[in-house]
Amino acid sequence: MRVLEVGSGGYNAGLTSLAFGPDGILATADANGSTYPWNTTTGSIVATLNDPSNPAGSNSSTPDVLSVAFGPDDTFATGDLNGNTYLWRITSGQS
Predict the structure, then answer these.
(1) Does the global pTM surpass 0.85?
(2) What tens digit of pLDDT does each residue of 47-92 get?
């Protein structure tokens, strides 16, 4: 068993959701509206994915990401408090 310290590396917002996916990926979502796919083999964050309607550094309020779910390929979906759903491709970090 490997323990990932999700409170390290600048990741300090409240964890709101997590999901295990294919190929050793764990996706976590936080109260700041960001999602982080993790490589569970290395323990490193693969990418930082921010809500496209509220890019990092904007002055607008970013909604909590409430749920994360993986698809059958290298995609996963996130849902936020405003009712938005985004489909992400893990390999590119694009929504």
Answers:
(1) no
(2) 888 877 665 545 455 667 888 999 878 788 998 888 889 998 876 5
CB 80 within 8 A of CB 16: no
Quick one: which of 29, 17, 16, 20 has its CA closest to 2? Answer: 20
Using CA atoms, how far residue 2 sits from 5, 32, 44, in Å, is 10, 26, 12
The DSSP-derived string for 14-77 is PEEEEEE-GGGEEEEEETTSEEEEEETTTTEE---EE-TTS-TT-SSPPPPEEEEEE-SSSEEE
